[in-house]
Amino acid sequence: MILFYTLLIVCFMTIIFFLIRLLSIKKEMKKITKQLKSYNHQRTNKKIDIALLDQPIESLGTEINKLVDMHIKEKRERIQAENELKQMIANMSHDLRTPLTSIVGYIHLAESDEIPEVERKEYISIAKKRAKRLETLLSDFFELSMIESIDYQLKLEKTNLKKIVIDVLVNFYDRFNEKKIEPIINLPDNDIFISSDESAVIRVIENLLSNSLKHSNGDIMISLEEKESKARLVIRNDAPSLTENEVERIFNRFYMADRSRSEKNTGLGLSIVKSLMEKMNGTTNGYLDEGQLSIICEWESVKNE
Question: How many CB atoms lie within 10 A of CB 148?
């Protein structure tokens, strides 16, 4: 009889325990639901708090918090992308409107019957230059859009990077000479090979050199080295007015650290560089040191066998 009552008490206590446990779980689930409702109605970004020490519920809370983190990250990236798109449209609108307004203005001046023929020719010449700049801008924008599309693929093959650098530098001789700049060139004795698309590498180097020539009145240094299975191309030029914050944004579409230079810069050259480098599994970074901007491109080097 005593055994029976003992078992009865044990069963009763067990039932009470499970009822309390069930009520606690139910209360915790209501709490989680309330927190999720607050989050879904955008009243809070707070993660799920779990007070009950229960492994399944703790695992559920952990997974929910991971979803919250992913949602917050995606929302942040979406807002950033929207802001960049708005800025890109605003910048593109400015860069299209400026030469268009200028072209129309000079054409109107050239159409006047009261101006001398010499001035008329000068106005037409200026309008042609503005039209050429507009053509370059639209061409660069189209090229960047193509490069960034998923379907755009490069043909990666073994390429002699040193040879390409030398060829591009030879082609830039007249432009260096025109600005009376003698570049400081440091190239290794041995050839350096990478897996890349030759035309894309040429475009990268051309854009970097063009950028340096546009914005530097001092020395320009070009160096190439191979270190720890990495081929590194560095192009450095004076940039006394540039700030660290601006360097972080120079690869963004249409970003111009100095809007007063918009006559010379479409803001797309470095974006094209970064996009092409990513397509070639390379990296591109900018660094500012004592008033000098260094843009570094790195590829995985390939052994010459």
Answer: 16
5: burial class by Cβ within 10 Å (0-12, 13-18, 19+)? exposed
**Main-chain phi, psi angles of 155, to 5 degrees:** -95, 100
Between 69-83, 86-100, 123-137, the lowest mean confidence (pLDDT) is in: 86-100
Other Cβ atoms less than 10 A from the Cβ of 149: the count is 9
Say how far apart CA 83 and CA 87 lie, in whole Å: 6
| pTM of this structure | 0.61
CB 293 within 8 A of CB 134: no
R_g of the chain computed on alpha carbons: 31
What is the pLDDT at residue 54? 62
What is the rounded average pLDDT for all residues in the chain?
Answer: 79
Identify the sign of the CA torsion 136, 138, 142, 145. positive
142, two tokens: 């189209």
Q: How far apart are CA 258 and CA 239, in angstroms?
A: 11
Distance of alpha carbon 25 from alpha carbon 8, whole angstroms: 25
pLDDT of the residue at 263: 42
Contact 301, 194 (CB under 8 A): yes
Across the strands, what pairs with 231?
226, 299
Residue 176 to residue 239: CA distance in whole angstroms: 17
Residue 8: half-sphere exposure toward Cβ, Cα within 13 Å: 5
**Which residue carries 């540039």 as its tokens?**
242
- At a CB cut-off of 8 Å and minimum separation 6, what does 82 contact? none
**What are the Cα distances from residue 93, in Å, to 135, 157, 202?**
14, 39, 29
Q: How many other C-beta atoms lie within 10 A of the C-beta of residue 8?
A: 10
Which pLDDT band holds residue 264 (cuts at 50, 70, 90)? very low
End-to-end distance of the chain based on CA atoms, in angstroms?
92
> Token pair for residue 108?
């109107």
CB neighbourhood size of 133 (10 A): 19
Read off φ and ψ for residue 240, nearest 5 degrees: -65, -25
